[in-house]
Amino acid sequence: MARSEERRRRGWRVRLVEAVRARLGGRRWHREGQVVVADAAALLRGGLAERWEDELGYAPAWVWTNRLAHGTEAELRTESEGTRPPGGASGERWRRARAFLAGEVLESAARYGSLAALQRDVLVPLELELSGSAQASGYGLAEWVNSIDSALREASQHRAPGRGQ
Which residue of 22, 25, 145, 158 is most buried, as measured by CB atoms within 10 A? Predict the structure, then answer.
């Protein structure tokens, strides 16, 4: 299952790169196009917070949801165990909070039916909602954790569609 997920992600990245290359005129790569592709690839693989922190020195609250919404079970387990290499100091508190939430996501996924279903039904829509909200873009750490925690609590009361009672 993890291999098929990785193949699917790789396929999306390849198609995205090809689409941007075609739009930019074949081999004429512009810096803006490279940034868009790199951001999109990071978004799809759950690494957008680290990318933005490295490139911009800052990642808004909604971006920290990205790994939770797109990371694999192995990535979330690694995150929750705190074995992921540390990043910049500015995001250390956010990383610790996301590590805690990664464990909560894995627990919720077991109750919900699967990680893929929880991400599809709950976390990706939440990520999109937070990214489009001016208020959520300014969330502090506690507000962001509460938004994720609330979504997980609500999801734990339900099972994924088609997964039985």
Answer: 145
**Tens digit of pLDDT for each residue in 85-97?**
555 555 788 989 9
The model's pLDDT over 106-122, given as tens digits with 9 standing for 90+, comes to 999 999 999 999 999 99
Cα 132 to Cα 138: distance, rounded to the nearest angstrom: 11
Nearest C-alpha neighbor of 57 from the set 90, 30, 21: 90
Q: Check if the beta carbon of residue 60 is closer than 8 Å to that of residue 130.
A: no
Structure tokens at 103: 């464990």
